[in-house]
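pls ignore typos typing on phone
nicotinamide-adenine-dinucleotide + seq
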Amino acid sequence: MTVDFTYAALPMSVRFGSGALTCLADVLDAHGISRAIVLTTPEQQELGQQIVTQLGTRAVGLYANARMHVPIDVADDAIRYAADLGADACVAVGGGSTIGLGKAIALRSALPIIAVPTTYAGSEMTPVWGLTADGSKSTGRDPRVLPAAVVYDPDLTRTLPLKISLESGVNAIAHAIEALYAPDASPIISLMAEEAIRAMREALPALQADRADSRAREKALYGSWLAGACLGATTMGLHHKMCHVLAGTLDLPHASTHTVLLPHVFAFNATAAPAAAAAVARALDVVDPVAGLSAFIAGLDVTHSLRDLAVDERDLGFCASAVVETLYSNPRSVTEADVEAIVLAALTGDVLTHPNP
Ligand code: NAD
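k done
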């Protein structure tokens, strides 16, 4: 096998560990930040307020109105508020929605972001931003939105409800799988991707058995860090495209949509990406990666079909053409009929077998 790749490391620092939140002030000092605005969703306002208190004079205020998919009016409001406060950085505490708001602020005002992730979505490791205006979400890549530093404290994930924890963990597995067969995959990213899937394979069933298992929380957050780094370094394929189109148009929850679609898209792609499929098999400790991934997700207390998300077959007519028209890279070519077959399988949750391309 020839080894031939391009790889660029992203410039950021990471502090990981139980209790790491206590180092947040030191992280701000190391980056010369003295007037931070703390961002959260309304649901995590109390945690945001605790962090404002913990940061003392380094924090100038709390903006607790982050929302899913970063609506442009919320971004505008937060940018104005940060400017009024004279903020010199954002501390984004939460999942992809809150970190996404930090990115929208950074894109327009160049404030650096310090991210404190509390889900496994992985946005903190990527230079990818998203903004929603008039019901349509645009995304892009810009180095200014990559957080300067990330503080991972597994203790902060204890409050994440079990179902969201498991679905967010499967979201991380999806990043790792698509990184394994990405056109810009590289040996180091493939190692990280395989390890991310392995960490989630160990962590998620343990979390399901005991939501308070601190070792499992630590392992899941470790897996999400690796998977997020894979997402940030590579170009995602059919799975992410389908999730983007379906969740964006039908306003479906992000992690649930990933969880429902992943076994179906992987069943479609696996035969065209044998090295990636072999890595998934090793990580899951199974012989058949497609059946193994499907059984792994089936064993979790998560959403298993689009019907469980209240999607009706009549809602899905737009999907195939929308996906195929603007498809990202993918290991095998995709027709509208392929997308229709995948979406119909996801509607019921029955995984199809796909012949070799
Ligand atoms: P989320 O950020 O929307 O969080 C879901 C809910 O859980 C929110 O109400 C949040 O306040 C709450 N929550 C989060 N952590 C919690 C905790 N520890 N305890 C209690 N409640 C908690 O969900 P998400 O799945 O993390 O992020 C989804 C969004 O992130 C989507 O908009 C997606 O497009 C985006 N995303 C972007 C990237 C990127 O690279 N740009 C990567 C992944 C996801």
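Residues 173 and 197 are 5 Å apart (CA to CA). Residues 41, 43-44, 68-69, 94-98, 100, 118-119, 121-123, 126, 128, 130, 156-157, 159-160, 164, 168, 231, 254-255 surround nicotinamide-adenine-dinucleotide (CB under 6 Å). more later
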